[in-house]
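User: tokens in, sequence out, please.
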């Protein structure tokens, strides 16, 4: 039961939705199912950056016509997504035009509905789990990691909601990134116990794991539909069912599926992938500092190294690591090693990578203080980009948040622009949508924090910067070309993170 006075605000339109006091949406769900009679029902649990897009991919499946129901909690953080989907506004902004196309096609077919009522699980042939599973970090003000923990309580509650309502022959496909061992040691026992309490058979349900490799940005949809998938099941029947489903939504003729021997193996594969990338980023951090001290351009060094095929994935310096995966997955793996498999020690190098990456935005701020050499108090600072990576509207764990808070602590006057973010939820700030208006102000500093496409090779942006009167330019992600840097330096000081030659 929700407080009848609680509300959920759409950050795109700022429309206020009053959260329903009674969570009963059965009549509308039944009408939706009746209108899609004969279709298998796919329920996607979680309507975030993965679940919402997965819903429209399933609604536009390649070889099957599904009726897709997205479900999320009716609370302040999520209810607006439910209302938006049903009212014609997709709750994810990204540069991929296929998102709006797929969403409009689903609306036209009438095979997509969003709800908050767990009754929908009772109708599902397939339930896809795409909910958040967080790692709680305990850090001091210097972002030194003093401890961390994985609280499975919300995840267990979500799985229980499925088990308390689902059919006895349901397929439950977990896409959420979870600690290795979760499907076998958490999901399967919960579903089995729930079915036993309901007096139903426990030999027919299936549990599988197939982690998403969603890449928000210009290839958002393709990262689901046109990309390789790894999958598994708790038994052969489950794995076979997962494979059959995935073949209906993924172009497996071009992107073959890979089956692993157990759900623990696929769970480990996901956190290993992300831990490798996190360590790759952490590795370049100390080298970027060395390059600055040695007075060399790390960008041209990396470009030269990337000519070697075995080293094409070496990273470039930046303001820091963000997003929902790289900031936590190495810790999740280490937690699982100690807590689910009773090891005496965790994954030390993976933990260290997270610690190094968490310090990156603080280092980027100290770099600014070192080279700006003036008091930042009351200085007018324009930040270009607040999302954690280019061409997406995802601000979760964005390193720009830490950097921005440092500026606010220094009492700077902050102006924010991002083409994909209207409201910065973590900072509770509205984002300016008109870059021209911001550049018309007399600024003291312009800082590029996210490498959005609209900031790259933008002659209009460079021209407006050149009209400023002695503004300090700081590029933390290396978007400006050599020619753009040369032109801006004719009027302004310019610093690029990771380049000791400027």
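Assistant: Sequence out:
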């Amino acid at each position: 039961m929700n407080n009848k006075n609680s509300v959920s605000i759409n950050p795109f339109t700022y429309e206020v939705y009053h959260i329903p006091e009674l969570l009963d949406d059965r009549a509308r769900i039944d009408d939706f199912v009746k209108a899609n009679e004969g279709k298998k029902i796919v329920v996607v649990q979680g309507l975030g950056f993965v679940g919402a897009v997965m819903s429209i991919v399933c609604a536009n499946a390649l070889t099957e016509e599904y009726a897709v129901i997205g479900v999320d909690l009716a609370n302040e953080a999520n209810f607006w997504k439910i209302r938006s989907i049903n009212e014609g506004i997709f709750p994810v902004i990204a540069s991929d035009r296929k998102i709006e196309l797929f969403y409009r096609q689903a609306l036209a077919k009438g095979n997509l509905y969003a709800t908050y009522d767990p009754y929908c699980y009772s109708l599902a042939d397939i339930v896809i789990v795409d909910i958040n599973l967080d790692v709680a970090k305990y850090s001091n003000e210097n972002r030194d990691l003093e401890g961390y923990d994985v609280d499975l309580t919300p995840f267990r509650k979500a799985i229980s909601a499925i088990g308390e309502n689902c059919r006895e022959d349901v397929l439950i496909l977990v896409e959420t990134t979870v600690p290795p061992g979760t499907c076998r040691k958490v999901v399967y026992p919960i579903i089995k116990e729930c079915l036993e309490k309901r007096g139903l058979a426990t030999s027919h349900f299936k549990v599988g794991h197939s982690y998403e490799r969603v890449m928000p940005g210009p290839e958002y949809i393709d990262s689901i539909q046109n990309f390789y998938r790894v999958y598994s099941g708790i038994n052969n029947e489950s794995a076979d069912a997962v494979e059959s489903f995935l073949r209906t939504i993924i172009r497996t003729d071009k992107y073959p599926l890979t089956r692993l021997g157990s759900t623990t193996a696929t769970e480990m594969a996901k956190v290993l992938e992300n831990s490798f990338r996190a360590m790759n980023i952490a590795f370049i951090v100390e080298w970027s500092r060395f390059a600055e001290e040695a007075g060399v351009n790390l960008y041209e060094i990396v470009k030269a190294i990337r000519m070697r095929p075995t080293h094409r994935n070496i990273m470039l310096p930046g303001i820091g690591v963000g997003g929902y995966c790289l900031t936590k997955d190495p810790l999740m793996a280490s937690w699982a090693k100690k807590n689910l498999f009773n090891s005496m020690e965790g994954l030390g190098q993976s933990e260290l990578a997270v610690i190094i990456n968490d310090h990156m935005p603080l280092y980027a701020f100290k770099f600014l203080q070192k080279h700006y050499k003036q008091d930042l108090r009351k200085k007018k600072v324009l930040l270009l980009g607040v999302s954690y990576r280019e061409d997406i509207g995802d601000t979760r764990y964005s390193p720009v948040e830490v950097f921005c808070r440092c500026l606010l602590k220094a009492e700077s006057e902050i102006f924010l622009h991002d083409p994909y973010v209207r409201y910065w939820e973590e900072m509770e700030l509205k984002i300016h949508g008109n870059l021209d208006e911001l550049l018309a102000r007399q600024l003291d500093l312009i800082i590029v924090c996210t490498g959005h496409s609209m900031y790259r090779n933008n002659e209009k942006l460079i021209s407006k910067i050149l009209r400023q009167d002695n503004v300090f330019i700081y590029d933390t992600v290396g978007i400006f070309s050599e020619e753009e840097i040369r032109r801006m330096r004719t009027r302004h000081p310019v610093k690029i993170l990771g380049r000791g030659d400027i």
